[in-house]
Amino acid sequence: MVGYFIRRFLQSLLLIWIVLTITFFLMHLAPGDPMARYDHPDISPETVRMMREQLGLDRPVLEQYFRWAGSFVTGDFGTSLRYNRPVGELLKVAIPNTLRLTVASLFLYMVIGIMLGMVSAARRYSVFDRMTTVISLFLYSVPSFWLALMLILFFSLKLGVLPSSHIQSLDVSGLSGLQLFADRISHLILPAFVLGVASAAGLARYMRGSMIDVLKEDYIRTARAKGLPEGRVLMKHAFRNAAIPIVTIMGLSLPFLLGGAVIVEKIFSWPGMGGLMVDAIYTRDYPVVLAINFVVAVMVILGNLLADTGYALLDPRIRSGRRGR
Amino acid sequence: MENLLEVKGLRTEFMTEEGPACAVDNVSFVIGKGETVGLVGESGCGKSVTALSIMRLISDPPGRITAGSVLLDGRDLLALSPKEMRGVRGNDISIVFQEPLSSLNPVFTCGEQIREAISLHQGLGRKDSRAKAVEMLRLVRIPDPEKRYSDYPHQMSGGMRQRVMIAMALSCQPRLLIADEPSTALDVSVQAQIMELLLDLREEMEMSVLLITHDLSVVAQMVERVMVMYAGVIVEDASVSDLFSRPEHPYTEGLMASIPRLDVDVERLDVIPGRVPDPLRMPAGCRFSDRCPKRIDRCLLEEPPMFDTGGGHLARCWLSAPTP
What we know:
The complex is a heterodimer of chains A (about 325) and B (about 325).
Chain A: H1 2-29, H2 45-55, H3 61-73, H4 87-122, H5 127-141, H6 144-158, H7 177-215, H8 218-225, H9 230-267, H10 273-282, H11 286-314, H12 316-324
Chain B: E1 3-16, E2 19-32, E3 36-40, H1 47-54, E4 63-72, E5 75-76, H2 82-88, E6 93-96, H3 100-103, H4 110-122, H5 126-139, H6 145-148, H7 158-170, E7 176-180, H8 188-205, E8 208-213, H9 216-222, E9 225-230, E10 233-239, H10 240-245, H11 250-257, H12 297-301, E11 307-308, E12 314-315
Parallel strand pairs in B: 3-8, 3-9, 6-7, 7-8
Antiparallel strand pairs in B: 1-2, 1-4, 4-5, 9-10, 10-12, 11-12
């Protein structure tokens, strides 16, 4: 098991290096120039040239790559070309905000997806099942940006019950701890819903299918033949088997969740990595893009590692297979 | 002998796209206390559906028990609430299925799956039920039961898995054990061991056994009485010695002729020509009529009732009708 994790870790390092290298060259291949925004009558071309020299942007791409990579491995993510601040500082603010949103979404995603899927499977072809099917398909098909705008339109503008943007109210000075918490939760509801519940719809479909397959298995009949109550049959005997393929799907869906966060954060003006990423791409802020890509890659790899570990924990057949290797 | 189980007029249907198909039709039989009865027939004749109907484990939909009663000590199981029925399953009536690998949950240890039944029906705590489960593993002669308790089904051999299934079924001292082709999925050498184990345990635990098999030769050594089933109905019901010495129903004769024998030199085994009728298109008269070598005109028109040919030997055949 230890050897397995060491191997996985080394593979992950290699993977991250490949991802970042590709990103680096793609960014430089793409048209556009980080200095383009200084294209202004008041700024002399001479000044721009000097800035370019200072930032090393006049060097050959390969040299820039090695310079960037050299400082990157020492933990120095460089300086944002746009904000003129260390990238690390920007991330320090953005990462916790994004984590707050993604963890809340992931929670909604797992709980709602799994619950809906299980109940649908247990009450197959019931009114509940048909309704969740229709709603799931709807949520699964609509683009998240549209859903986000509609929710803002309805809950923020029409009903005025939920805030439409930002992580908390502008002025929170007079709020007690509990009030501040409630304020933050109310800001979290809409973006977390868009991100989590919309993807939960897809998970619910997978969970339903997996559960229905498992419920046909002989060992479910055995569990019933023992006299176990239906709830125990479902929650103990069926759930754990049905969850095995679902864990993989959840691991695979993590990149989509993080990718979706980019759009959702932008729409809800959420001060996280997503918004930062979009702006950085527009302004060709290379160091920021690369650093965010690095963080996302690490999260995705961790997510997959977690999924694989969960897989092995749930399925003893995989555990013993690994021991044997 | 006092009756333990009394099945009367049991009828189980399955919904198909072409309408309801009757898998078990008007099946009636009794099993006495401590008696071992065999239920024999080809695949698909309704043996397993009968067993699952007794335990009310037919999945609904598509299946449904539409008529009859199943009396266990006089109590009609078909009239019980789902909760009451759960108290019967695994406790008063247990079942051992054909395929031990798929019948055991792959993600729980064998011991846990036995322990669960014990703690459910006997209200024992984790420690006590575990000790009892280990005891059950020892009873079914699994070596080193303390250690094998923690084994997962995939870590055991086929024979061992079936022993685990038997331990699970017997863990609450049921009064009736239904063994649904318990040895069919196993190697021949292991088959005999499992059968022997069942025989021994039956004596030890003084329970009644309904042994379901497609193999008449297994029945001969194991049971006291045999019921032969064909296309959803019981066609013959007799003690083992009676059945083998004077089979009444032509279908039973056919089954016997198809048992391979070492003492008779034959070129090839006899087979019963034709196929089991489609449950959606049953013949109007006797269900065996289209395959029967002794068919008379009446067989095509009227379904025969059960005739008592003497000494409790029942046969559903016009040829067994008492001569007026």
